[in-house]
Structure formats: C-alpha cells, structure tokens
Amino acid sequence: MKRTLTTITALLFALAAFAQSADDACLFSQTYYQGTAKALGMGNAMGAVGGDMTAASINPAGLGIYRSSEVTTTFSLMDNYNASTYYGTQDGANKFRFSIPNVGFVGTKEKSNYRPLRFVQFGIWLTRTNDFNQHTLSRGINPTSSKIDSYLARMDGYTPNELQDAFPYDIYPAWNTYLIDLYQDEEGPYYGSPVPQGNIWQAQENEFKGRNEAWTFAGGFNYFDKLYLGLSLDLTHIKRVGTKTFTETPVSGTETDFNEWHFKEDLSSRAIGVNAKVGLIYHANSWLRLGAAFHSPTIYSFDEKWQTETESQIVMVTRKSLSPESSYEYIFISPLKWVGSLAFILDQRGMISLDAEYTNYGAARFRTAADDDFDYTPTNDLIKETYGRTLNFRLGSEWRVSDSYLRVGVGYYGSPFGLGETGGSVKKASCGLSVPVSKSISFDFAYELTYGKSYQILYDAGDLGIEPVTQKQFKNLVATTFKIRF
C-alpha cells in the first residue's frame, strides 16, 4: 500500500510536466483480450487450445489447428461500474458501451495426408486488446487541504510575470481567475488564495472512451497433426479520448468569498503500431497439449493533444481561463511478452486449459519522434523504478453436452508494480455456451465479470496530507459470436 501511494504521487509530478507519463506507459501496455465469445467464455485460456481467432492472437500456432475455413463476427455489450470511497463518502458512476470486438476470416488448405505438412492456414481478423471506456466519480470532504495548496507549494521563487511561461496549464490559469492572488503582510508580499485550506468538498470525475485493437495477419502450419506452428503480424490502433474534471466547493455554512472552482483536462491520444508473434503447439499425446508463444514489443507512433480549462466563482463572479492546446508526437514501445500453455483433453467430454503470461511493465519506453529533442530519460527512469515484472494466469474449461458446449474460465492479472504487489491487479470470471444451428453454423455466447481495486491520489498535498480515493471496478461484459465454417 505504501509503495502504491508513493508511486501515484510520483506519477502526478510526471503528468504535471507533460502528457506522456509513467501511468500512460502502463495503461497502453496492458492486454485484456475481448475477441470471440468462445475464448471469452474460457477465460481466454487458449494458448494450447487453438482453433479460434482469439486463441491465435494469444498463440499464432492456434491457427494451425484449423481444418476448415471460417468467418466470424462478435458483438458485445459492456457495463463498466466504478465505486469510489473518499474520506468516508461513497459514490459511483457507470458507462455502457456496444462494440464489435472481433470480425475475421480464416482460410485453410489441405496439403497432404501422408507428407509431414498436412495443412496450411492464413487468417486476418480484428481483436480488441483493451477497452478504455470508463466513467468514474469520487467525492468527499477533505479536512486538511485544497488542490490550490499544491499550486502554492510549486510557486515559491517565481514572480507573477513568470507564471505564464512556467505553469501555463494549471497555476497561471488559477492566477488568471483569482484563485491565487498576491497578498501583503508585515513580512512582505506572498501568494495566497480565497479557497479554504481544508474543510472543503472535493470531486473528481473522469469520463473516457476508446480502445486498443489489432488487425492480425497470420499464417499457420500443421505437421503430422502433432506439431503446429504459427506466426503473425499485428497492426494495432489506439484511441483514447476524454475529460478529467476536478471541483472544489465550500462546506455548507463556511464563511468565505469563494463559491466554487473547476479544473478540467481534455485529453486525446491516438496511435498506430506494429508487433510480431510466433508460437507453437505440440500434441504430446492424446490427452496433453503444450503451447508456447513470444510477443515482440509493440512500437507505437502517438499523436496526443492536451488542454486545460480553469473556472472560478468568487463573490458570485465567474471567470474562465483556457490554456494553450498542447500537441505531442512521440514513439512508445511496450514490453515483450512470453506465454506458456497447457491443455488437458478428457476424451470426448471436454478439456481444461491453463495459460501463464510473463511481461515486465518496467521495460516500457518513450522515444522522441522525428524533429523532436525532448528528453524522455526522467520519465523512462520513473517507469523502470515504478513498475516491474508480473505474471498473468488464465484457467479455462470446456465440456461437451450433446451437440453443445459449456465453458467456464477465470483469470488473475498480476499487479503492474511487480511480483508480490497487489495494487492494480485484476480478477476475471466467465462462462459461455456454444449452440449449433447446423453443421456449418453456430452461435457462441459468453459472460465475463471483471473486478479490480486501485488507489488514486488527487494531488500532492505535501505535509498537509491527503487520503487516497479507493476505486473498485466491476465490469460486466456479454458477447455473442456468429460463426460460419466451410
């Protein structure tokens, strides 16, 4: 807990300096597959199973399992609810989203029944690898500090004429709207504010939409119906757009000229990227399958925009100040991944599968784009110091009932802060059903519940202290896949 809160405070300093920060590096490196309903129902524990487009996104050798061609389309509906607690006050918000997380085609060609190479496959499909649709709301009465106190602590040594160049996004707009002013006492001039120092209502509302998705171009090979190899190239796309709004108002009955103030951030992140994957699946015997895959780092080219708006109401007079729009172009490199998998085949009754995934979030890096001399060394050092190695585990099963299949899965995604840490870990549970319509047409259905708990510090209050916001996320996702084989 102590390490987590220290980390969050450090991230706030990075975000105050520029939009690209260590928390962005973690966010854009995390992978939570939302593809076919079959994979979702099995908890995405598909690395040694194959025969599915999402399975082949996890391990390209899964493409080699196909013996017929296939077209799929998946539709999903998500309800993302976030519950917060801040200084004992509980609140929450949710966001609904309809999406198409998978659409694709796999073509299969039989080569021989007696030569080593039995089948070859080619596929192209879309898989959503993360979802950024989120709405959070937290409110509470802070008894010890205001966000303005964090501004005042950073202004020491600066004259009023230097504020616009030094702090164009937060402190200068606060100065421009009289949230900060110059006062005089017997010791001389000093910066102060009409906003009370504590005993004040604070609220933080974040609302974002967007996704991380990949178009996969893959090839698979079946040798002796025993060894399956695959390789793929992913063209990735990130879009994340939203707002963060921080508000302070006095507690009812407080005698003050201050009425309220808002600090709003508009953020837009868009990127295209590329990575490569290779994998194999080996059928050791009739009941055991082994799988392994390597995912290269993804190299992204980002275009990001950031702008702030500060609005104050003092003695019932409203003032607004809009910052310049800041635009960034930069390169981001996410960490590589290793995936190891097991699948146990229980005759014709079903299977149990397990995936273990390793990555090191501390290896993520920012790089300068062309014609940019910005130094990302401090940010990359912060990423390395803050984040670490982690393991993700996925367990799934499938059981045959007549011509249908029942599926159950669970997943644990370890803390990005390193092995042994718990902050930021995510737990998942899912179930699914496959219903055949004919020999070539079927529908898959799945439901997934995601739970995560995290902490957020709204600003650096220094010695004044501030309680972290506790955020609990409950994500409900339902999906259906329409599948045609030929």
Account of the protein in words:
The structure is a single chain. The protein has 486 residues and is mainly β. It has a single domain, classed as Porin. 13% of the residues lie in helices and 57% in strands. The protein contains 8 helices and 21 strands. It has helices at 2-17, 22-27, 37-41, 53-58, 147-154, 163-166, 171-176, 377-386, and strands at 70-86, 89-110, 117-131, 134-142, 181-185, 188-192, 200-223, 227-250, 258-283, 288-295, 299-314, 317-322, 326-333, 337-346, 350-360, 365-368, 389-401, 404-413, 426-436, 441-456, 469-485. Strands 1-2-3-7-8-9-10-14-15-17-18-19-20-21 form a 14-stranded antiparallel β-barrel. Strand 14 and strand 15 form a beta hairpin. The longest helix is centred in the first third of the chain and has 16 residues, at 2-17. It is elongated. Mean pLDDT is 92; it is low at 1-18.
Key attributes of the depicted protein:
elongated, Porin, disordered N terminus, two-stranded antiparallel ribbon, 486 residues, 8 helices
